[in-house]
Amino acid sequence: MFTPATTLSETEAAASGPWYVFDNRGSLLLVAGAVPVGDAPPCPLVDVHVLGSDDGAPVRTARIAPDADPFDDVPEGGEFVNMRAAYGVIPDVEWAMAGRGSQVLLWDRDHQFCGRCGTQTTAHESERAKVCPACKAMAFPRLSPAVIMLVEREGEDGPEVLLAWGRQFPGRFYSALAGFVEPGESLEECVVREVLEETGIEVKDVRYFGSQPWPFPNSMMIGFTATWAGGEISIQEEEIVEAGWYGPDNLPPSPIGGMSIAGWLIEDWLTRVKN
Ligand SMILES: [Zn+2]
Fold first, then answer.
1. Domain final residue pick, 126, 141, 156
2. What's the CATH number where 43 sits?
3. pLDDT for 219-273, tens place per residue?
4. Residue 126 CA to chain centroid, in angstroms?
5. Rounded to two decimals, what is the model's pTM?
6. How many whole angstroms from 124 Cα to the centroid of ligand 1?
7. Contact 198, 149 (CB under 8 A)
8. Distance 185 CA to ligand 1 centre (A)
9. Domain range holding 245?
10. Which of 26, 145, 150, 234, by CA, is between 20 and 30 Å from 35?
11. What angle do CA 229, 234, 236 make, to 5 degrees?
12. 123 alpha carbon to ligand 1 midpoint, in Å?
């Protein structure tokens, strides 16, 4: 079982374990399609962080040293793979661990100096935190909570869901609505506000579905289902290209299952309405 930690015992430190190594673009080192494992680093490293231990095996993340060659200084068969492309290539549990590593590295890089007084920070001795030696401010890895919700209704021809083509999507692609939580707002309030802002639809029966750490770069996606309560679709054009109600047999290009909670929400709905 994996246990998160920031330091290793002497025995653990000497044992063999996986190395989650990233380049400067956030791509993950795979060697012959797998996360490299060993008791020594697979290539010259900087910013080495302990993520924890897995049944005594150390789990570490790091960046390849800036002066190392990403081709010649990695083991034979090694290449840096974009995190999205690595999904399905390595086991899901390792993909999630890589996401954990990328977020720790990002936090490390972005908190070299105190945000309050500008003094160089130091690592906390036992917690995953940066401490300012001058003003004592602490910085923990930042998570940005976002809600993602699938709105359902009973249409004239049967069950339907509200899906939208987001402006930031790479192509014509429809998914559940989502948005970042604002300070002072509950998750449920955020669901109601985001659906109304983006599509003009009012919802009720907001229910928790599940959550997913989303390391692009540091989101925590919190999934909900909700039911249509009123209103006609009127899209917020800065965010949405098109939105509509879709039945299980006329879905537009959408994620179903797969790597994201959006796909899990849609798959769950399909399973429910088709049975
Ligand atoms: Zn400070």
1. 141
2. 3.90.79
3. 999 999 999 999 999 999 999 999 999 999 999 999 999 999 999 999 999 999 9
4. 25
5. 0.91
6. 14
7. no
8. 28
9. 144-274
10. 145
11. 115
12. 13
